[in-house]
Structure formats: structure tokens, C-alpha cells
Amino acid sequence: MLQLLLASAGVLFGAATQRTTGLGFALVATPFLVLVLGPQTGVTLGNLLSASLCALVLTRTWRHLDVRRAALLAVPALVVIPFGAYVVRTLPQSMLLVLVGGLAVVAMLLVAGSERAAVLRGRVGAVVAGALSGFMNVTAGLGGPMITVHALSERWEPARFVATAQAYLLVVNCASLAAKGLPAIPLWTLAAAVVILLLGAVLGERVANRIDRRVAHRLVVVVALLGGLAAIVRGLLTAGD
What residue ranges are annotated as transmembrane (predicted)? Predict the structure, then answer.
């Protein structure tokens, strides 16, 4: 019951964060979904919910979309997604848990220090960011951090970043689902997750202009780090099973 409550809170808080800042759903929600549902189902459900949320946010932000930049990021991501899907199918569950948790921790450390980043600039930076993001998205549901590093390296305006990130992640999450299939969960579980997702999006809409973004950023870092570390510990504890 506690794990179920944590997963629900992760989806709610993650959706609110993404509506407020443009990213954050997968960083917050996916590690807890993995703890409850296992690495394959948890990540795949995260992909599905993230795609739905990106489509929802994009309906409010599409006027600022940079189509060419989104395409430049998406092409290398689409190339590496089949390889990432192969890794998901072949790794044991315990090793996949450690991989997902480890990528979550690395992703959050990247985001935490990305305000000073200037390492993924230009077309080459976009290709590298897209490829790494695609692999991380299909294996761990974490496509956003590398895009964040690229956007901050390029000094994108916030409005442009939010819209372009939604379009890119919508494409990549749909491709990840096509490579792996839909999550194997009961219909009522999926319906409940969607309802919580929508509630989180509404909450984010309400607080978008009222919360200090630095405070929100720190909360995301702490929560996602805890979730990633918990996934690593669970993977290590079940490695001999």
C-alpha cells in the first residue's frame, strides 16, 4: 500500500512539475513506478503517461515550438531506440532495476548542475543529446535530462524550451512504446494513473505562476534522487533471486 501511494504521489507531483517547468514528470514518477510495477512495466507505463502529458502540455504551448530543432533531436533518438529496447528485453530484472536507478541518479546530477553547462552545443551537441536521450528514454523513461543540458548549453528561452521539449518527448515516447509494446497492467490501473496524471496537470496549471521555480527544481532533484537510489537498492537486494 505504501509503494502504491508513493507511485501515485510521484505521478501527481511529476505531472504538476512538468506543467510548471516543461520537464520533470519522468524524473519524479518513473523511479516510483518501477518500484511498484518492476522495471519493464514501470518504465513502459512511464513512457505512456509521459507521452499523454506531453501532448496535453503541447496544446497550450505549441506556438513557441521550434520544429527544426525538435526534428534534429528526434532523428538520432529514433535511431538508438531499437537498441535500447533490446537491452530492456535481455537484461535480468535486477540488473535492469540497477540500470534504471543509476540512470535516474546520473540524470538528476546532470540536471542539478546543468545551469552552468555548455557541453552539448550546436548540431553535434543536438545529435549527441538526442541519441543519449533516446537510449535513456526507452530503457529508463528518462529522455528529458540530456535535452535540458543541450537547451541550457544553447541558452534557449524558457517558452521555446517547454514547447520543443514536449514535441520531442512526445515523438520519442511514442517510438519507445512502439518498440516495447504497451504496459501489461489492468485497465483500472491505467485509468487511475491517467486520472492522477490529469489532476497533476491541473495542479501545475494552478501553481505555475505562484511557486518559486528554484524551490520546485530542488524538490524535483531530491525526490528523483531518492526514487533512483531506492530502485538501485531494490535491484541489488534482488540480484540473487
Answer: 70-88, 94-112, 124-147, 185-203, 215-237
Start-to-end CA distance of the chain, whole Å, equals 23
Give pTM, 2 decimals.
0.81
The pLDDT value recorded for residue 216 is 60
Are 115 and 152 in contact by the 8 Å Cβ rule? The answer is yes
Query: CA-CA distance, 189 to 197, in Å (whole number)?
Result: 12
Evaluated on CA atoms 185, 187, 189, 191, the torsion sign reads: positive
Q: Is the pLDDT of residue 220 over 70?
A: no
- String of DSSP letters for 177-230: HHHH-S----HHHHHHHHHHHHHHHHHHHHHTTTS-HHHHHHHHHHHHHHHHHH
CA distances from 17 to 53, 158, 236 (A): 11, 14, 30
- Helices and strands, number each (H, E), in the chain: 10, 0
Residue 49: band (very low, low, confident or very high) from pLDDT cuts 50, 70, 90: very high
Give mean pLDDT, residues 161-168. 89
Tell me 46's DSSP state: H
State the Cα–Cα distance between residues 184 and 163, nearest whole angstrom.
30
Sorting pLDDT into bands at 50, 70 and 90, what band is 240?
A: low
Which string of DSSP letters, residue by residue, matches 3-23?
Answer: HHHHHHHHHHHHHHHHHHHS-
Instruction: Yes or no: say if 140 and 97 are a contact pair by the CB < 8 Å rule.
Output: no
Contact 84, 138 (CB under 8 A): yes
